[in-house]
Specification:
Strand order of the largest sheet: 2-1-3-6-7
Protein name: hydrogenase (acceptor)
Oligomer: single chain
Structural class: alpha/beta
Subcellular location: Cell membrane
EC number: 1.12.99.6
Catalytic activity: H2 + A = AH2
Cofactor: [4Fe-4S] cluster; [3Fe-4S] cluster
Largest sheet: 5 strands, parallel
Radius of gyration: 19 Å
Bound molecules: iron/sulfur cluster, FE3-S4 cluster
Number of helices: 9
């Protein structure tokens, strides 16, 4: 309560905005508490009231005023082909805005699979050369926290922010740069259908008796055995459910290159 709220610049490159959509639905903590009480979200071109030159001036103001003391949150990624012309913000390539804002930040949060891995716009043949944040040539060498998922779970997003603000340090990251507390286990390790997998009870058709009984979706292409995320523990919509619980296999949306790893419905 006594600490000044830390400024955050939330930039948007090539993306679909559903990472933001997820974030604003966090129940614990409530997104409004994160935005209004825990941090100072000074720039977010999707939800801010300001527009045009007034909005762009805020980026410069924060970068100059809070050198080394603001968090850079990135949703989406920059396309590098044609000098970045496939994503223009305020008349300039997004990659330039990203590099400028990264230069003086304290740390970078790569929201979602777009910023973390590239996601659908980087899928083959990737005509715009969409590039995940950590692979952007010439980007300042700053700590990067990857929070992958398409989108990431709302409470995982707000928990990462809460951790940063509470402890004033990065959460422990795994070798791929993801917070260990949410990405150290496979969906398969904590899936409630796992006993059916172990017993060899598999759904073979979407409408067969095994589907009605809630058996394992492995033979329908479930990527839970190779996907690291917290969906089977934290779940979605404040712990209500997750894809497998709704009857569809995991498509591995938090994994690097999941669009190019074969059909969502092919067995592993
Ligand atoms: Fe949208 Fe997925 Fe990219 Fe998030 S990671 S902006 S949900 S496409
Ligand atoms: Fe594993 Fe998927 Fe089967 Fe769950 S439904 S036990 S994650 S293969
Ligand atoms: Fe994505 Fe699989 Fe979770 S598809 S939302 S990682 S269950």
């Amino acid at each position: 309560e006594t600490k000044p709220r830390i400024p955050v610049l939330w930039l948007h490159g090539l993306e679909c905005t559903c990472c933001s959509e997820s974030f604003i639905r966090s129940g614990h903590p409530l997104a409004k508490d994160v935005i209004l009480s825990m941090l100072s979200l000074d720039y977010d071109d999707t939800i801010m009231a300001a527009a045009g030159h007034n909005a762009e001036a805020i980026v410069t103001e924060i970068v100059e005023k809070y050198k080394g003391n603001y968090i850079l949150a990135v949703e989406g990624n920059p396309p590098l082909a044609e000098d970045g012309m496939y994503c223009i913000i305020g008349g300039k390539p997004f990659v330039d805005q990203l590099k400028y804002a990264a230069e003086s930040c304290k740390a970078i949060i790569s929201w979602g699979s777009c910023a973390s891995w590239g996601c659908v716009q980087a899928a083959k043949p990737n005509p715009t050369r969409a590039t995940p944040v950590h692979k952007v040539p010439g980007l300042a060498d700053k700590p990067i926290i990857k929070v992958p998922g398409c989108p990431p779970i709302a409470e995982v997003m707000t928990a990462v922010v809460a951790y940063l603000l509470t402890f004033d340090k990065l959460p422990t990251l795994d070798k791929q740069g993801r917070p260990q507390m949410f990405y150290s286990q496979r969906i398969h390790d904590k899936c409630y259908r796992r006993p059916h997998f172990d017993a060899g009870q598999f759904v073979e058709q979407w409408d067969d008796e095994a589907a009605r009984q809630g058996h394992c979706l492995y033979k329908m292409g479930c990527k839970g055995p190779t996907t690291y995320n917290a969906c089977s523990t934290v779940k979605w919509n404040e712990g209500t459910s997750f894809p497998i619980q709704s009857g569809h296999g995991c498509i591995g949306c938090s994994e690097d290159g999941f669009w190019d790893k074969g059909s969502f419905y092919d067995r592993l």
